[in-house]
Amino acid sequence: MSVNKEFVKFDKVDKSYDGKVLVVKDLQLDIAEGEFITMLGPSGSGKTTCLMMLAGFETPTNGEIYLDGNAISSIPPHKRGIGMVFQNYALFPHMTVYENLAFPLRVRKIPKDEADKKIDKALSMVSLQGFAQRMPGQLSGGQQQRVAVARSLVFDPQLVLMDEPLGALDKNLRESMQYEIKHIHESIGVTVVYVTHDQSEALTMSNRIAVFNDGKVQQLSSPDELYEKPVNSFVAEFIGENNTFAGEVSDISGGKCKVKLASADILANPISVKGKGERTTVSLRPERALINPSDKMDNIHKGKIEEVIYHGDHTRVRINLLGNSEFILKVPNSSSNLDIKLGNEIKIGWNSEDARALDPK
Amino acid sequence: MSSETKQILTTDGIPLEVSLKKAEKKNKIKAFLLVAPLLLFIIITYVFPIGDMLMRSVDDKMVTEMLPKTFKSMEKWDGQDLPPEEVFEAFYFDFQKLIEEEREGKLSTQLNYTKNGFKSIIKKLRRKSKSFEEGNYKEQIMSVHRRWADVEYWRAIKRRAPAYTYQKYLKGIDMYENEKGEIINVPEDRRVHRILWMRTLEIAFFVTVFCFLMAYPIAHLLATLPMKYSNLLMICVLLPFWTSLLVRTASWMILLQQQGIVNDFFVMIGLVSDDNRLEMMFNKTGSYVAMTQILLPFMVLPLYSVMKTISPSLMRAGKSLGGTPFVAFWKVYFPLTIPGIGAGCLLVFILAIGYYITPALVGGASGTLISNQIAFHMKSTLDWSFASAMGLMLLSGVLVIYWLYNKLVGIDNIKLG
User: Fold this and answer.
1) CATH no. for residue A298?
2) Is B317 close to A76, i.e. CB distance below 8 A?
3) Are A158 and A39 in a shared domain?
4) Domain at B193-413: CATH code
């Protein structure tokens, strides 16, 4: 059985609320069946608007959204059959957990015994058996969120939307819920569109991540590719930690380019620069730079340690390197870390392949 | 055993409970002093007047004190035939004393409440009694007017003997206690109060229903519109609130009268002919229209404050789970607004049941309510005890409604904001 690669399709979708500003610009996005896709971006980037258009609570100003090949712009929300988990859970406070879960089944006129089976199944999926007769107000935040997840799945929708569902939970609970949702997704194979502004959540859970900024998808790729190979400086900056050098391309040849900084030249991997004289921002992940590097590395420079912060399993070292005083290094806490003391001059090296010359900010 | 549990001491060796009380005492006094003015205010302006009203409605001491000897001598009288000579004699002496104190007018008013016809014969007795001779007062009094020889009037006097009475309450529901102590209805053509009670309930009920039907969509709009528009709408709701009740009622009179604007409009669009203009004022219609408009904010505000707290994502959740907009509204939104509906309906109903000025001005004869009758007895007949009795009946009616509401909906479910 072939997987439908275009289970959800945003086709040239624009959205504006006031006729002056476009919140979503020319969105082109295909979501495959069974995929867990995350829309990630800062607030105001248009990701929630996209989700609301998919759910049917907002209409696209231009373009069309297809669900399983059918245009859905003219279908009202209650006929789309899409499950949804809301940011503030949106459990019905006057109904018990059982009644909350029975609601979507009742409106679909599913017989009671069959509905009861589905409710049992959904509750055991989120390990909340025995909570059926509680009121939502008697549950903790995490339990409420699980009920909301169970309710969005109980009527076997093909697509589930989640709008920052873990935003209100504390850190530990959030992490365990991330795994739980991921496992539920894996076990029942439903397509999930997940919205969050928390990048670690996105990296942990998703098959693919769409990074939103300014109403546009900046990059759509798998979590590892997103982290390792950001295509522009916004993504590089937004996902994970990032050291940057701003400069001008002075030479480009053989898959490498030379970037002229204020004090020195560095070698970098030309991603979005084409020719000499272009302004660029070079992005380098902290863990790709090493202290006391081997001579094989083609970038080796000296810097001065400005700050040392102990983080348990690793130490963060802030270095003034090539005029960038915010250069961060992550040093694993092993016994061989010799010279990491405030004020020391140390040698730092990295491969030009890992230094990505992106668009200037 | 619990009695053997060790007493917990503070570090200084004082029992913990004593120490706690001491520490809290100052706060308690402070709190009480803060509340004291309000408490005093409520006692003086609310508890005391209502207590006084209760006393007044059952108090019948006035006549008892005016005719002490008469009532004492009447104790032996069985009420079958005319009373014996000593009753007449006692009555004569009591009456003479009242004339000296110039209180016989009050007696005549009081006795007249019990039975019509006392006023004139007491006046006559006063004139004639100056020339009474000593002895055989029965003959002399009976000769003043033939009603004095009627046993009914003497029975009426005897009925006023007890210091406390529930006659006024019976009168409030068109009943009375006859000479034999039976409680019976007044003749059908004189039953005014029952009609008024029923009309009051009916008007209050329908005004509540109309207010609810009109306020629900308004409150919903208020709660869901963007701030810019909802503020304007809120002002529209509150504007009548800031206008004098009298002005609003008067403007309804301008609108609703036969030569008024509404009728002019109906004639203009051809809905009614010019010589057949609608009567919308000085009847129930007038009361309905004006009271609904005036009481509307009392329904809108509690509904609004409850709707404001309902997250819009609940309706969205209802729809995304497959409920049609109507199902989502009926199963999700509506049940959550019940506390506001309860508060608004109770508020409007209780206000409407005691409404006075508006029905008095636009209600006419068929649109007046029980409170207008109370006012009538307060101002015109000066039968304050009857007015008090009806006021208390109204109050207890409201309490019954409150109790019923508590049984049906639960008073904890009320939300005013």
Assistant:
1) 2.40.50.140
2) no
3) yes
4) 1.10.3720.10
Query: What is the chain B residue with the closest CA to A160?
Result: B320
Q: Do A104 and B321 touch (CB under 8 A)?
A: yes
pLDDT in tens, A256-273: 787 887 777 788 887 777
Do A178 and A200 belong together in one domain?
A: yes
Q: Output the average pLDDT for chain B.
A: 85
Q: Which of A233, A266, A291 is the last residue of a domain?
A: A233
Nearest to B298 by CA among B338, B334, B342: B342
Q: Identify all chain A residues contacting B336, using CB atoms and an 8 Å cutoff.
A: 93-94
Whether residues A90 and B317 touch (CB distance < 8 A) is answered with yes
CA-based nearest distance B337→chain A, Å: 11
Closest CA to B175 of B325, B415, B394, B389: B389
- B204 versus A334: the higher-pLDDT residue is B204
| pLDDT tens-digit readout, B388-397 | 999 999 999 8
Q: Are A246 and A229 within one domain?
A: no
Whether B324 sits inside 8 A of A78 (CB atoms) is yes
Reported in sequence order, the residue ranges of A100-168 that DSSP labels E, i.e. its strands, are 159-163
Which residues of chain B make contact with A81, given a CB cutoff of 8 A?
Answer: 322
Same domain, A125 and A247: no
Q: Where are the domains of chain B?
A: 17-58, 61-163, 193-413
In a domain, A80, yes or no: yes
- Show the domain range for A334: 241-358
CB atoms within 10 A of CB A102: 21
Instruction: Examine the domain organization and report whether A136 and A255 are in the same domain.
Output: no
Cβ separation of B322 and A78 shorter than 8 Å? Answer: yes
ipTM of the complex: 0.79
Q: How many domains does chain A have?
A: 2
From A204, A233, A262, give the residue that closes a domain.
A233
B234-248: average pLDDT? 86
Q: Report residue B274 CA to chain centroid gap.
A: 41
Average pLDDT, chain A: 85
pLDDT digits (tens, 9 = 90+) for A140-194: 888 898 899 899 989 888 899 998 888 778 888 888 888 888 888 888 888 999 9
Structure tokens at B293: 């408009």
A 157-176 near B (Cβ less than 8 A)? 161
In a domain, A344, yes or no: yes
**Is the minimum CB–CB distance between A77 and chain B shorter than 8 Å?**
yes
> Which pLDDT score is estimated for B416?
58
Q: Are residues A151 and A254 in the same domain?
A: no
Please report, for the domain that includes residue A205, its CATH number. Answer: 3.40.50.300
Are A274 and A212 within one domain? Answer: no
Cα gap B42→B37, rounded to integer Å: 9
Q: Residues B122-153: pLDDT tens digits? A: 888 888 888 888 878 888 888 888 888 888 88
Q: Is residue A314 part of a domain?
A: yes
Site of tokens 């929300």: A77
DSSP state of B81: S
* Contact criterion met (CB < 8 Å) for B332 and A88: no
Contact B336 A94 (CB under 8 A): yes
* Tens of pLDDT, residues A223-232: 888 888 888 8
What is the rounded CA–CA span in Å between residue B237 and residue B295?
11
Tokens representing residue A254 in the block: 């053989």
A2 part of a folded domain: no
- In chain A, whose CA is at the least distance from the CA of B333? A92
- Chain B 271-330, residues with CB within 8 Å of chain A CB atoms: 311, 313-314, 316-325, 327-328
Residues A261 and A347 occupy one common structural domain: yes
Q: Are the beta carbons of B324 and A90 separated by less than 8 Å?
A: no
Nearest to A107 among B316, B317, B322 (CB): B322
Question: Residues B346-372: what's their mean pLDDT?
Answer: 85
Q: What are the CA-CA distances from residue B142 to residues B47, B87, B100, B145 (Å)?
A: 48, 12, 22, 6
Q: What is the DSSP string of A204-230?
A: HH-SEEEEEETTEEEEEE-HHHHHH--
Inspect the interface and report whether the beta carbons of B321 and A155 lie closer than 8 Å: yes
Is the Cβ pair B321, A55 closer than 8 Å? Answer: no
Chain A residues close to B327, C-beta within 8 Å: 107
Alpha helix (H) residue ranges in B149-226? 151-159, 167-172, 193-224
Instruction: Tell me the shortest Cα–Cα distance from B413 to chain A, in angstroms.
Output: 12
